[in-house]
Amino acid sequence: KNSNTEGSIRENFILDITPGINADLFVSSFNGGIDQVNIRTLSVVPYLSLAEGQNTGIPNLAATRLLCDRRGNLWTGGEDFLGLVSANEKKYRALDLPRGLQFKGTYVTFFRELNDSTIAVGINEIGILFYNSQSFRLNGMLELDAAPRVGQLPNNGLVQVNDTVLYFSAGPYLVKGSYRNGKWQTAKKALLNTPGQQTINCLVKDP
């Protein structure tokens, strides 16, 4: 739609789209915040805008990644921020990073709902963080430094094989992660290095 038209998406440069639990889509756009679209009526409602003063909006309009989990919580992140709008509170709340880490110069690369209680969040130059989708607390972290040359690369995709095995991409590398001794750990070596150091942009599991 035309971004100047009332009742339409506020910007035409779409960054991400995620389905809601009802007949809704959540759409993030460059400098437009997040809009909620009813797919039956095509009505559009501004959902999250830039925070002003004590407003609980998002800190950065470029919300590059979205995920609506099975409980209806909307997870969102972009450059230097990570947070969510809980289905109960209907307001934005920032999420914590592991102690000693900061968002400065980082950005969210993906969200994945691993199971009924865990959301995986990829953040470049930090790793993969695991949050409880009910308490929203940080449950663990998969650091990328164990695999050579992977630690400073953007991790763009993740697929889960089962409760103890997952694979993720980091630049041109495919890396295995395993859940052992109560935490996720990275394999010491990358499994795949693409020809010509081409970046892996996404991963899909064959059903």
How is this structure best described in words?
Strand 6 and strand 7 form a beta hairpin. The chain is globular, with a radius of gyration of 17 Å. Strands 13, 14, 15, 16 and 17 form a 5-stranded antiparallel β-sheet that branches. The chain has a 4-stranded antiparallel β-sheet with strand order 1-2-3-4, with no helix packed on it. A 4-stranded antiparallel β-sheet has the order 5-6-7-8, with no helix packed on it. The protein has no helices and 17 strands. It has 207 residues and is mainly β.
Write the layout of secondary structure elements.
Blueprint: E1 14-19, E2 24-29, E3 33-38, E4 44-48, E5 65-68, E6 74-78, E7 81-85, E8 92-94, E9 108-113, E10 118-123, E11 127-132, E12 138-142, E13 157-160, E14 165-170, E15 173-180, E16 183-186, E17 192-193
Antiparallel strand pairs: 1-2, 2-3, 3-4, 5-6, 6-7, 7-8, 9-10, 10-11, 11-12, 13-14, 14-15, 15-16, 15-17
Question: Could you tell me the strand content as a percent range?
Answer: 35-45%
Which residues form runs of ≥5 with pLDDT under 50?
1-5
Give the SSE string.
Answer: EEEEEEEEEEEEEEEEE
Class inferred from helices and paired strands: mainly beta
Roughly what percent helix? under 10%
- What is the helix tally? 0
| Mean pLDDT, all residues | 80
* Gap from first CA to last CA: 35 Å
Q: Radius of gyration over alpha carbons?
A: 17 Å
The biggest sheet amounts to: 5 strands, antiparallel
Oligomer: single chain
General form = globular
Number of beta-strand segments: 17
